[in-house]
């Protein structure tokens, strides 16, 4: 086990109320495993990602839970100890590479600095910077370029090169390809895959479940701050259990069956005041159709149960209510 997250809850304390962005999220990532978080906008994917490196933006706060990296409890480390881990054991790439690149400094200097802050000496860092750029298919003469002199795809490759500097144990990639065209997207996915092959575990975020299915080992489905289903790609795609997962899969085109695309009706809830019981019940077709579950779905929160080995779901259809 590389990363073990238990019962993680994160709230944003805004002027208009407490946003319960992430509630009771539990999952783990093995060594060399690629886990992709999917779910609609606002479901809490980025908030979970930022919590793992303890960079939840204010007014957000981790209110409870445990985040263990190889048995080390990250939430108990000092800020200084955490700084040692960021960029070394855990690296992060974002949707917009300009959030991590400094527009005013040459990319070579930024690569070198990413290494010298962790104690690598300057000459060695310069050498490594060239190698890293080559690894991400950028000619080494671009070391003297500023970020704006590169294309969007090249900038993203530079931020991946920085993330790769120490062969991190975990790479967190939050929608790293969303802003790029399809061909460039693929080359970025290839790079992330090559990192995995060298031993890095991947925490990937996307709202495109078909992109998730292509490369990852496991899929985690989030809805309104809750993890509703977790399993291998095969388990999730072949045998989706949660009505929300089923709806997500039906909302994307299927190249093989040409089944009709069905949008998910309704909208995700306001997380300042989430629905009682299962947060998905107001949009759930099972809740709408099956009267007998109604006493539970809109009253009791479903707990995560292991339906089959490695396949977890939080839905009253499969038991797991607190009353049982
Ligand atoms: N800085 C903030 N202040 C207040 N609320 C926030 C803040 N950042 C996120 N939230 C709220 O937290 C919830 C989860 O947001 P988050 O960005 O984690 O979702 P996401 O799944 O990554 O969405 P997207 O797919 O749009 O990136 C949302 O309800 C969002 O409005
Ligand atoms: Ni996000």
Automatic annotation (TrEMBL):
EC identifiers of the protein: 7.2.2.11
Gene Ontology CC terms: plasma membrane
Keyword hit for Membrane: yes
Keyword Protein biosynthesis annotated: no
Enzyme class, spelled out: translocase
Keyword set, alphabetical order: ATP-binding, Cell membrane, Ion transport, Membrane, Nucleotide-binding, Translocase, Transport
Lineage: superkingdom: Archaea
Location within or outside the cell: Cell membrane
ABC transporter domain segment(s): 5-249
Full protein name: Nickel import system ATP-binding protein NikD
Organism of this sequence: Thermococcus chitonophagus
